[in-house]
TrEMBL record:
Belongs to the EamA transporter family. Keywords: Cell membrane, Membrane, Transmembrane, Transmembrane helix, Transport. It is a multi-pass membrane protein. InterPro entries: EamA_dom (IPR000620), EmrE-like (IPR037185), RarD (IPR004626). The chain crosses the membrane at residues 9-28, 40-61, 73-93, 105-122, 153-168, 180-199, 211-230, 242-260, 266-287. This is Membrane protein RarD. Residues 9-143, 153-281 form the EamA domain. It is found in: Cell membrane. It comes from the Bacteria. GO terms for cellular component: plasma membrane.
């Protein structure tokens, strides 16, 4: 199967986004002196400042105003904003509480959810191997719940929120930069109020190095998200799901080999089923390529 120039660009953007997300826990560990909710608030404020600067430099204000006057667009972006805020909080919470393995599991499940949503809502026809991949992932989570009595709520919450976010952003006819501007603007006032009212007590804990790292929250958060949103509009959602395995693989390696998180029997079984699903989808992709 030959990719067009636009599709090749989409693949490169997606790979870059997922690589940056895969190593994102390293950055969050460096600023883990702050509690999760405060970190999310900082993430929103610094992201808004960074995206605003890009809007002004690229002279996107007229375009932004046109989107803001579209009621259907604003409704869609309100939904995507809520999903994004929820996802950001769960991810930061997972890293701050030494559960990077749970985040890795979430983003192994997420591409399989992307495939299912693509088949259900976008009329992207799924082949038997793809449906088998989705079934294996569901089975893995079900076994963990039924046999081990462990509900991976953190992983399921992250996976579902980001899959639905990606679906909305794929369907919404807005570019990644302006979409990100509206989303962060919707979250800005609550985030700013939280920092002003409850963040003051932790300010004394922050060194100059911490403030420098927090200032990087803008580009570190916004750039991969805009890359992802742009890629979602250029390539099939099923292809996007396949490329997304880059991120969780990097997180898994960090969790097990760098942060030495426990990899118990329940997680072994769940990951085993999901990796089998990944193998099925990879086999389908290779067959289709041939």
């Amino acid at each position: 199967m030959e990719f067009s120039r636009e599709q090749k660009l989409g693949v490169l953007l997606a790979m870059g986004a997922f690589f940056l997300w895969g190593i994102f826990p390293v950055y969050l560990k460096a600023v883990a002196i702050l509690p999760p909710l405060e970190l999310v608030a900082h993430r929103i404020v610094w992201s808004w400042l960074f995206v605003l600067a890009m809007i002004l430099v690229l002279k996107q204000l007229p375009k932004l105003k046109a989107h803001a006057r579209n009621p259907r667009m604003m409704l869609a972006l309100t939904a995507s904003t809520l999903l994004l805020a929820f996802n950001w909080y769960l991810f930061v919470y997972a890293v701050n509480t030494n559960r990077v393995l749970e985040a890795s599991l979430a983003y192994y499940i997420n591409p399989l959810l992307n495939m299912a949503l693509g088949g259900i809502f976008l009329s992207e026809r799924l082949r038997p191997l793809q449906w088998l991949a989705v079934t294996l992932a569901v089975t893995g989570v079900a076994v963990e719940i039924a046999v081990f009595g462990s509900v991976p709520w953190l992983a399921l919450g992250m996976a579902a929120s980001f899959a639905l976010y990606g679906l909305i952003r794929k369907l919404a006819p807005i570019d990644s930069l302006n979409g990100m501007m509206i989303e962060t603007s919707m979250m800005l006032i609550p985030a700013g109020l939280y920092i002003a009212l409850w963040g003051e007590a932790t300010f004394n804990l922050l060194t100059e190095e911490h403030w420098a790292l927090l200032a990087l929250f803008g580009p570190i958060s916004a750039v991969p998200l805009m890359m992802f949103a742009s890629a979602a509009r250029k390539i099939q959602y099923t292809t996007l799901g396949f490329l997304q395995y880059i991120g969780p693989t990097l997180m898994f390696l960090l969790a097990v080999w760098v942060y030495h998180e426990p990899f118990g029997q329940a997680k072994m079984v769940t990951f085993g089923f999901i990796w089998a699903g990944v193998a099925c989808f990879s086999a389908y992709a290779l067959l289709r390529r041939r």
